[in-house]
Amino acid sequence: QKEVEQNSGPLSVPEGAIASLNCTYSDRGSQSFFWYRQYSGKSPELIMFIYSNGDKEDGRFTAQLNKASQYVSLLIRDSQPSDSATYLCASMQGAQKLVFGQGTRLTINP
Amino acid sequence: ETGVTQTPRHLVMGMTNKKSLKCEQHLGHNAMYWYKQSAKKPLELMFVYNFKEQTENNSVPSRFSPECPNSSHLFLHLHTLQPEDSALYLCASSQGQGPNYEQYFGPGTRLTVT
């Protein structure tokens, strides 16, 4: 099984700033990548997914994919304390297998 | 919370017990999944079902036995578990299978094996 790597953090960002979360993957055959948010004691909640090189924006969130560098990132603009959570990056390997990274714990400081 | 429900939400069982976890999705999806989330480890895929047929078994020990009677329901039967099996067990579903299908998770069952 190919891996997905994330910095476990914690990553601390002041309120209103941009939070940048990064992920690398080893399976060059992976076609799509997913970002999930998980609050403590809760299940993962899908934020967005990306499968084309470049940027994809959804509200305050922007996912970036660089397949040549095998790198995925998630930017959160105007960070809010409610964004404090663990962010999980996952790659789709084959047609059905989501492989997750360890997750990055993000704290937004008021 | 989501269109995927799981019961029970918490379960404590001894190593000689037999119990079952239940998952139901109300989204009209065709694929269902079991995942395990242990402390300090990445979320790990266990089983995949597509149109009731098992299409993935991620080298899961036989003490975990899945069952999918229809596209809306998924069970995980547990027997003679070990303490290291204590974890959060998450069910997920997706409309189909492929790189563009998002998976939506249920709330999970927190399992403790004593």
Describe the structure.
The complex is a heterodimer of chains A (110) and B (114). The model of chain A has no long low-confidence stretch (mean pLDDT 94). In chain A, a hairpin with a 2-residue loop joins strand 6 and strand 7. Chain A has no helices and eleven strands. The termini of chain A are far apart. Chain A has 110 residues and is mainly beta. Chain A is globular and about 40 Å long. Chain B is mainly beta and 114 residues long. In chain B, strands 2, 4, 5, 6, 9, 10 and 11 form a seven-stranded mixed sheet that branches. In chain B, a hairpin with a 6-residue loop joins strand 4 and strand 5. Chain B is globular, with a radius of gyration of 13 Å.
Q: Which spans of chain B of ≥5 residues are poorly predicted at pLDDT below 50?
A: none
Portion in strands of chain A: over 45%
Radius of gyration of chain B: 13 Å
Largest sheet entry of chain B: 7 strands, mixed
Helical/strand content category of chain A? mainly beta
User: Which range best describes the helical content of chain A: under 10%, 10-25%, 25-40%, 40-55%, 55-70% or over 70%?
Assistant: under 10%
Number of helices of chain A: 0
What oligomeric state do the depicted chains represent? heterodimer
Number of helices, where a helix is a run of at least 4 consecutive DSSP H or I residues of chain B: 0
**E-strand count of chain B:** 11
Strand content of chain B: over 45%
Low-confidence stretches of chain A: none
Q: In whole angstroms, how far apart are the ends of chain B? A: 30 Å
Please give the number of β-strands of chain A. Answer: 11
State the largest interface.
A-B, 24 and 27 residues
SSE sequence of chain A, one letter per element: EEEEEEEEEEE
The helix/strand order of chain B is: EEEEEEEEEEE
End-to-end CA span of chain A: 40 Å
Shape of chain A: globular
